[in-house]
Amino acid sequence: MAESFLMEACVDSVESAVNAERGGAGRLELCSSLLEGGLTPSQGLLQVVKQYVKIPVYVMIRPRGGDFLYSDQEVEVMRKDIELMKRHRADGLVLGALTEDGRVDTELCMEFLAAAQPLPVTFHRAFDMVHDPAVALESLVSLGFQRLLTSGCDNSALEGLPLIKQLIDQAKGRIAIMPGGGITERNLQRILEGTGAQEFHCSARSGRDSAMKFRNSCVTMGAAFSAPEYGLKVADVSKVRTLNAIAKNTL
């Protein structure tokens, strides 16, 4: 039982990807813009990450931050990104879309899944914005998604633990339910024990200071909520190892 879990690390750089693999992650979710919850990474990032790691790399298909109701032009971008990420050897894709009334957009998701074949596809935390989680889960099962990433429709997987447990019970193995959102060394054991999940998703990052010696403190390269210009966050090998050890001792 101790070897039956899998840790997926959410990464946005080659350094984080390498560190996550070194720490024992079993799969990567490759994104850009983690401050916005993760957007589609560049093809260049995918290609270089694939050169440096051997574990599966699932690529986020999300053209912008904000909601999951997409315009025709945004859908066109997502179609093209699916095509390009497949061409550049993505091992799987992560995506999702909702209707304006908070349901899974089954028609659009069916189109995306067809375009993604034969790659496995995870439905991401768009699920946490649905009107009725039980109904939405059945939609995902019917569509053929391999996995659902969810915080249990709450701010974190710990807060959403009761719903995650309900979803796992409802799924009955028809789709993998992967808790994610705010998972740390302090709460992982409680989340795994409370849900019975066999996979979990986290970034396991630590801050690292920039190597820049000259610094212009008057300029910010983004909105007011953006990350500091001279601070980096990368996956921490020791954190990944700790999380894996906790999972092994729990399951």
From TrEMBL:
<dbReference type="Pfam" id="PF03932">
    <property type="entry name" value="CutC"/>
</dbReference>
<comment type="similarity">
    <text>Belongs to the CutC family.</text>
</comment>
<comment type="function">
    <text>May play a role in copper homeostasis. Can bind one Cu(1+) per subunit.</text>
</comment>
<keyword id="KW-0186">Copper</keyword>
<keyword id="KW-0963">Cytoplasm</keyword>
<comment type="subunit">
    <text>Homotetramer.</text>
</comment>
<dbReference type="GO" id="GO:0005507">
    <property type="term" value="F:copper ion binding"/>
</dbReference>
<dbReference type="InterPro" id="IPR036822">
    <property type="entry name" value="CutC-like_dom_sf"/>
</dbReference>
<keyword id="KW-0539">Nucleus</keyword>
<dbReference type="InterPro" id="IPR005627">
    <property type="entry name" value="CutC-like"/>
</dbReference>
<dbReference type="GO" id="GO:0005737">
    <property type="term" value="C:cytoplasm"/>
</dbReference>
<dbReference type="GO" id="GO:0005634">
    <property type="term" value="C:nucleus"/>
</dbReference>
<protein>
    <recommendedName>
        <fullName>Copper homeostasis protein cutC homolog</fullName>
    </recommendedName>
</protein>
<keyword id="KW-0479">Metal-binding</keyword>
